[in-house]
Write a structure and sequence with these properties.
The protein is of the alpha+beta class. It contains nine helices and four strands. The chain has helices at 16-32, 42-52, 58-66, 83-97, 104-120, 161-170, 176-183, 217-230, 232-237; strands at 135-141, 145-150, 155-160, 191-194. Helix 2 (42-52) crosses helix 3, helix 2 (42-52) packs across helix 4 and helix 6 (161-170) runs antiparallel to helix 8. It is elongated and about 65 Å long. The relative contact order is 0.11.
């Protein structure tokens, strides 16, 4: 819990709607990672975020914002990419809605991921090549392991932490926490893991791996193909794959 001595982060009247959107986004992200239940009420999440920012409650935050009316410059509310605040958010939500020592790392990682998105949101939407020999994926992290989405073929694969850790060990990343530290920067970003990008292609996301020899390209590729191996029967059963022939047929 944040103590009474935590300085109040200034929230202005024009940011009150953004505040609620931020609290909703935190819970959505934590729920996707299987860290909180999806039915967490708006009252609980708004109060938790308000306490993180130094207020007694959400009501106290709203009341305090009214005193800042004249100083309101109608700026976006930036909290996830502030390192000190992101740590406080992770700690508060972890203490109030989980508290298990094994899960704290993932709570912090989820908030860090939101911070990365807060910084990158101006970069726009990537456009992808139609070349079928190129594979683009997106990843997310949860308590069970890594989810990998094949963007072109539109299917999701799950890779458990045990399998992920064995692959990480090969590349010198020992244990789940070490992998989380590495992979959180790549969550929800389009990643090219197979094929070569043309120089003039518009791919604004910094995390897109244009040079597949650069790390962590090889690791991400290994994780994805391990997930494919474990889910081969499911992949073959998909409508778009039922009539595909083997290269050796």
């Amino acid at each position: 819990m944040m103590g009474q001595d935590t300085p109040k982060f200034p929230i202005y009247p024009s940011q009150l709607k953004q505040f609620k959107e931020k609290s909703e986004k935190i819970v959505w992200a934590l729920n996707r990672a299987n860290l909180v239940k999806s039915n967490l009420s708006s009252f609980k999440r708004n109060d938790a975020l308000a306490r993180t920012l130094g207020y007694k409650s959400h009501s106290d935050l709203v009341f305090s914002s009214k005193a800042r009316q004249q100083a309101d410059k109608i700026k976006p509310l930036i909290i996830f990419s502030d390192e000190k605040i992101s740590k406080r958010i992770a700690t508060t939500f972890w203490q109030e809605f989980d508290g298990k020592e094994s899960s704290y790392k993932l709570f912090q990682s989820v908030v860090n991921q939101l911070g990365n998105q807060e910084v990158d949101w101006e970069q726009g939407v990537a456009s992808f090549s139609d070349d079928k020999h190129k594979i683009y994926i997106m990843i997310s992290l949860n308590t069970d392991g890594i989810q990998l989405i094949n963007i072109g073929s539109k299917y999701l694969l799950n890779l458990d932490w045990q399998s992920s850790i064995l692959i990480g060990d090969v590349y010198g990343f020992s244990g789940r926490d070490n992998l989380i530290d590495l992979l959180e920067d790549y969550v929800d970003k389009p990643l090219l893991i197979e094929g070569i990008e043309e120089g003039n292609e518009y791919l604004p996301t910094k995390a897109l791996l244009k040079n597949l020899n650069d790390f962590p390209g090889p690791l991400l590729r290994s994780l994805y193909y391990k997930a494919e191996d474990q889910n081969r029967e499911y992949i073959n059963s998909l409508p778009q794959n039922k009539h595909l022939k083997s290269l050796f047929d």
